[in-house]
Amino acid sequence: MTSGGDSNPGMSDRVKRYVLMFADAVVLPIALWAAVELRYGDLEHELSAFWFLFPVASVVGVLSFRKLDLYRAIVRYIGPSSILPVIQGVTLAAIAVSLTAYLANAVTFPRSAPIIFWFIAILMIGAGRIAVRAYFYGWFNNYLVREAVAIYGAGDSGAQLAIALLNGNEYMPVAFIDDNRDLRRNTIHGIKVYDAAQTEKLVEDFGIKRILLAIPTATAERRRQILNDLAQMPVHINTIPGINELVTGQASRPSDHGYRDRRPAGQGYRPAR
């Protein structure tokens, strides 16, 4: 059983990725057209002499985005990590356009157009992703003073927990951990999903002090197995009730071990804050 088994009806993430790819394929040549027109200062300039540069921008840009894993960021959970691939992909597209124009001896193509295209394309493609990021949580959270935590479970419950933490002031989620192979290497709210086998390395690399279990659909046996696997690591372990449990009043109180807090032997018990 996977820990990220929350389902979501409607359009699949695969279809949404294809829609994003198509949208980017349309936006990139539009950005190049706008760059050329801005350079010439009119809308009547003849573009037929270098028409082939527009599909170059589209194809190279989309392939670069795909290679840079931009489309692996689950659509409804796009975060700040999506912006760097946008910049890198647009840069490659601008270089490809410039080189193609040079090799094809497109003398009427303005040399400064790729630079203008770079700015416009990043603005057009990145603006939507930035807007989603700003909608879910602000840019100006102070990440450095927060306690680094990992969320075990990259389903809807884990994603909702990440939003709550990102909007708070105490904890900073730095990694998702999940058994579901289909979710690995995806990013949710800008947080990468890792395999459970990497947990110990994640704790060391990110300085994680607490692991939050957001796996409401997991069986009791599976929960015990996960707790046993994590028990020897120098972290607190908290079991977070699901949203449905909270709404229906079925969530256990902390004193009833609705939240677990474990540390290695000799480090003592510290109640969850």
Question: Which descriptors would you attach to this protein?
Answer:
273 residues, 6-stranded mixed beta sheet, alpha/beta, disordered C terminus, elongated, 6 strands, 2 domains, Rossmann fold
- Would you count the extended β strands for me? 6
Q: Averaged pLDDT, please?
A: 78
Strand line-up of the largest beta sheet? 3-4-2-1-5-6
Q: Uncertain runs with pLDDT below 50, 5 residues or more?
A: 1-10, 251-273
Q: Structural class, judged by helices and strands?
A: alpha/beta
Structure notes:
It is elongated, with a radius of gyration of 23 Å. The longest helix has 28 residues, at 13-40. It starts with 12 loop residues before the first helix and ends in a 25-residue tail after the last helix. Strands 3-4-2-1-5-6 form a six-stranded mixed sheet, sandwiched between helices. With 273 residues, it is α/β, with parallel strands linked by helices. Helix 1 crosses helix 4 (113-136) and helix 2 runs antiparallel to helix 3 (83-103). It is built from eight helices and six strands, in the order H-H-H-H-E-H-E-E-E-H-E-H-E-H.
Produce the secondary structure layout.
Layout: H1 13-40, H2 53-67, H3 83-103, H4 113-136, E1 147-152, H5 156-167, E2 171-178, E3 187-188, E4 191-195, H6 199-206, E5 210-213, H7 220-230, E6 236-239, H8 243-248
Summarize this structure briefly.
The protein is an alpha/beta fold and 273 residues long. The chain has helices spanning 13-40, 53-67, 83-103, 113-136, 156-167, 199-206, 220-230, 243-248; strands at 147-152, 171-178, 187-188, 191-195, 210-213, 236-239. Helix 1 packs across helix 4 (113-136), helix 2 (53-67) packs antiparallel against helix 3 and helix 3 packs antiparallel against helix 4.
